[in-house]
Design a protein that fits this description.
Blueprint lengths: L1 H13 L24 E8 L18 H10 L1 E8 L8 E5 L11 H37 L10 H12 L11 E7 L18 E5 L14 E3 L2 H22 L1
Parallel strand pairs: 1-2, 1-4, 4-5, 5-6
Antiparallel strand pairs: 2-3
Helix pairs in contact: 1-3
Length: 249
């Protein structure tokens, strides 16, 4: 009787969930969802002089937190780059692996035995994720410090770089990954090569305060007035994708 009671308590402590389906660890802190669809986002910021009169916002490091939280929660990649006079340059990238799943087994004792390995992997994941996010924040802050002073706009170079990142083949996620390109730009292009086609199948969002699409009109993007509105749209869409995938299982 005593052994059975201990088994029940152990199993109850093993799988603690909240009403929204997110796991909690033993201390009751919010843990990362393991049933959230992974996501890949390319974020490109226009730092050319035309942004000063087209009401195209400049990003601050804290503006990225909504997307960083999404990547941490679901797993995936976030890449930040600039639209300047030469835009086809390497991106600042953050990759967060999907967290290890809580052990489940038909036999409660077997699940209990698997717990120490899970805890070790979970701690390693948390350490690696925190360090990756720290490095990304530092690199992103340095990138965003640059003034919007480029003399011409190589828009299509930025589109090409973003699409190359988004089109990378990666089967390690274990799930279908959704792809987004968010361009904070007035859409003006007046130097460099172009136009180019997007082959990644990513959904394209354009952000500026003048409702201008410029050269990007041919790609038929969704338009947003502020970066945070665009970021919230991505987060909400990912939640809907995750719910749809869970309902199909």
């Amino acid at each position: 009787m005593q052994l059975a009671s201990l088994m029940i308590l152990a199993v109850c402590g093993l799988l603690v969930t909240t009403s929204c389906g997110r796991q909690q660890n033993a201390s009751g802190q919010q843990a990362v969802e393991t049933n959230c669809a992974p996501v890949k986002i390319a974020l490109l910021l226009d730092q050319t002089r035309s942004t000063n009169w087209t009401r195209t916002p400049q990003l601050r490091p804290e503006d990225l937190e909504l997307l960083i939280e999404l990547i941490k929660r679901c797993g995936g990649e976030l890449a930040l780059g600039l639209i300047r006079d030469e835009s086809n340059r390497s991106l600042v990238r953050l990759r967060v692996e999907r967290p290890p799943e809580t052990p489940e087994a038909p036999n409660p004792l077997r699940a209990l035995k698997a717990r120490p390995l899970y805890e070790r992997r979970r701690k390693e994941w948390e350490t690696e994720t925190a360090e990756g996010i720290r490095r990304f924040r530092e690199a992103a802050a340095m990138l965003l410090e640059r003034p919007a002073d480029a003399g011409c706009t190589d828009l299509w170079g930025a589109v090409l770089r973003a699409d190359l990142f988004l089109a990378e083949e990666d089967a390690t996620w274990g799930a279908e990954i959704s792809r987004w390109a968010v361009l904070v730009t007035d859409g003006h292009h007046n130097c460099g090569h172009g136009p180019v086609a997007m082959h990644s199948g990513a959904r394209l969002l354009v952000v500026n305060g003048s409702a201008s699409l410029g050269s990007l009109a041919a790609l038929k993007p969704a338009r947003f007035e502020s970066p945070q509105a665009a970021f919230r749209y991505v987060v909400q869409a990912q939640e809907e994708i995750s719910r749809a995938e869970r309902s199909e299982k």
